[in-house]
Design a protein that fits this description.
The protein has 308 residues and is α/β, with parallel strands linked by helices. The protein is built from twelve helices and nine strands. The chain has a single domain, classed as Metal-dependent hydrolases (TIM Barrel). Helix 1 crosses helix 3 and helix 8 packs across helix 10.
Length: 308
């Protein structure tokens, strides 16, 4: 069983600590060796600019993370292949793994479409509009005013449509979510769970999940413990509860995984790093058919292939 993981913050962690070796560093939840041994097919690598970076420096930091992606993640490992289109993914050989570049939050582009276009030219294939707070594109889910897309934000989403890339609604305000659903051709939620199961503001309401399903989009269940359960330590059982719920809403072919590995400090028991995917798959096979589990692992890949 091969895995498509829709979200990780490896690049952020490697930017914070330049001594980290992607091959096998114990400081990482995802390493090259784990990807090879634990069934990865495509791994998404997010560009995330921490809040403490000054606004005038954020685009430069984004470029630094792009350089880390190519120089320290792609170039040293011949079996890790940069992918951005359907054909790139379908061309992967049996033992090759695709690496897909994403942007988490548009803080890096300020109010510049040129900066967005530059990141797209450098290989970004999915763009999350916000982190938790406001920027010139929209409000994040933690912004008290709860505003939606700005005029510039609608221009950004339209640029995504033209480039045939995903618009990621994870971290977005509720109003922003519904604005995106009106404008975006290719919306996804790369790492969000169901608020009906765990009452956290970062999770999706049933109506939002159903709207994504209606748009033939996908939801990546994330392994952030606080998004999985209201009752202390999270386990693989809690992942199953969110999967069951999304499937009950009609999402069997619209649900995958977006671990958020290396963007979290606390981890879910049994999913402490990427190698935990093996245990997750074994556990899911106790309750779902092999074809259903394969769909969950490949949902994002299938949607991506339909898009380009």
């Amino acid at each position: 069983m091969k895995i498509f993981d829709a979200h990780s913050d490896v690049l952020y962690k490697m930017w914070m600590d330049p001594t980290i070796d992607f091959a096998d560093s114990p400081k990482l939840h995802i390493t090259y060796n784990q990807l090879i041994t634990s069934g990865s097919k495509v791994q998404c690598f997010a560009i995330y600019i921490p809040e403490e970076v000054r606004p005038e420096s954020r685009f430069e930091v984004a470029l630094e993370m792009v350089e880390i992606f190519y120089k320290k993640v792609i170039d040293p490992f011949p079996l890790l292949k940069f992918v951005r289109t359907r054909d790139d993914i379908l061309a992967l050989k049996e033992n090759e793994i695709g690496a897909l570049l994403t942007l988490e939050g548009c803080d890096a582009i300020d109010q510049s479409i040129i900066k967005l276009q530059t990141l797209l030219r450098l290989g970004v294939s999915s763009v999350g509009l916000t982190w938790n707070y406001a920027n010139f594109v929209a409000d994040g889910i933690a912004e008290p005013r709860g505003g939606g897309l700005s005029s510039f934000g609608k221009e950004v989403v339209e640029e995504h449509n033209k480039a045939l890339i995903w618009t990621d609604v994870s971290h977005l305000s509720i109003k922003g979510f519904w604005d995106v659903m009106e404008v975006a051709d290719f919306p996804i939620a790369s790492h969000s769970n169901a608020i009906s199961i765990c009452n956290h503001r970062r999770n999706l309401q049933d109506e939002q999940i159903q709207a994504l399903i209606k748009k033939n989009s996908m939801i990546g269940i994330t392994f952030v413990p606080q998004f999985l359960t209201n009752h202390g330590n999270a386990t693989i059982d809690d992942v199953l509860k969110h999967l069951d719920h999304i499937c009950s809403l009609g999402g069997e072919n619209h649900v995958g995984f977006g671990s958020d590995f290396d963007g979290i400090t606390d981890t879910t028991r049994g999913l402490e790093n990427f190698s935990g995917y093996e245990s997750l798959i074994d556990y899911l096979l106790k309750f779902y058919s092999e074809n259903q589990v394969k769909n969950s692992c490949f949902t994002i890949l299938s949607e991506f292939c339909q898009r380009k």
